[in-house]
Amino acid sequence: MTEDPMSEPASRTSARRTTIYDLAALAGTSASAVSAVLNGTWKKRRISARLAEKILHLAAEQGYSVNLQASVLRREKSNIIGMIMPKYDNRYFGAIAEEFEIRARARGLFPVITCTRRDPDLEFEAAREMVSYQAEHIVATGATDPDRIADFCRAAGVASINLDLPGAAAPSVVSDNFGGSRDLARLMLNRRRGPLLFIGGRPTDHNTAERIRGFRAAHAERGIDLPESAILACGYAAEKAERALAARGGPLPAGLFVNSTITLEGVVRWLRRTAPDSTTEIGAFDWDPFAALLSDVVAMVEQDVTRMLDEVFRLIDAAPDPALRIEVPTILRARP
């Protein structure tokens, strides 16, 4: 008589990895039912809680690697809160991630953060994975396509909030980019009468567009006609700023309005290499305490991460209108 491999005792099956087919045979059900239990979709398949518990028990007994989705079946809520993060390359996003984790844990939530490098496909994949892990809330920070994420989350019954960049399909918390930019440009124009040069960011990006609008408004208040060549929206990367300044040519302006501390790295490198004796002053939108010590940096705009996350967690509790947008004032830090 041939021995049925599905009925082998645990001592013999321990030599090989247990599969969902083994678990299906032991539970007296189908492999697809086992898969649904282990990936957290068993309720949608109308699988009974009793069978789900049986499969989980067998999986643990057989040494099957049960993933996080399965473990949350034993609780009514997962207590998972996710955050999609575009970059970790400056203090602003680093501060958001750190404070988000602290606040989430203080509420008894488990924070999951993933970096998606401003790639819309990676952003969507991250949202889909978080939903599969039964995340109860997702915060899309600086997402390039926030509405795609929000629509998916809503269809899955998961609450989402946009942070840093706004969307139309979920409530948003953003900085007052227009006001912060206008105030920085005003301060710089008060110090130097000539027009400033704006450098960094992407013109299609909401935050950059608002900062350019504030930059233009400050010049218009003083009756300064600002040419298109005064805006170098060349991207955020430091090397792009260096290339844009090199391609621009001509004399340096009285002041450089730098649209990110990431861009600031490239601007400073270019100045030190090509114009070390320049008297051009620098203002930056974003705050870095080390960069603030540079002799040519006269002012920086700090985005108020604490207040922004206050609003995010308030919205998590409030279930607000998806069209809601909250603009948090920035902090202008000028050298005395």
UniProtKB/TrEMBL annotation:
<keyword id="KW-0805">Transcription regulation</keyword>
<feature type="domain" description="HTH lacI-type">
    <location>
        <begin position="18"/>
        <end position="75"/>
    </location>
</feature>
<dbReference type="InterPro" id="IPR028082">
    <property type="entry name" value="Peripla_BP_I"/>
</dbReference>
<keyword id="KW-0804">Transcription</keyword>
<dbReference type="InterPro" id="IPR046335">
    <property type="entry name" value="LacI/GalR-like_sensor"/>
</dbReference>
<dbReference type="InterPro" id="IPR000843">
    <property type="entry name" value="HTH_LacI"/>
</dbReference>
<dbReference type="Pfam" id="PF13377">
    <property type="entry name" value="Peripla_BP_3"/>
</dbReference>
<protein>
    <submittedName>
        <fullName>LacI family transcriptional regulator</fullName>
    </submittedName>
</protein>
<dbReference type="InterPro" id="IPR010982">
    <property type="entry name" value="Lambda_DNA-bd_dom_sf"/>
</dbReference>
<dbReference type="GO" id="GO:0003700">
    <property type="term" value="F:DNA-binding transcription factor activity"/>
</dbReference>
<dbReference type="GO" id="GO:0000976">
    <property type="term" value="F:transcription cis-regulatory region binding"/>
</dbReference>
<keyword id="KW-0238">DNA-binding</keyword>
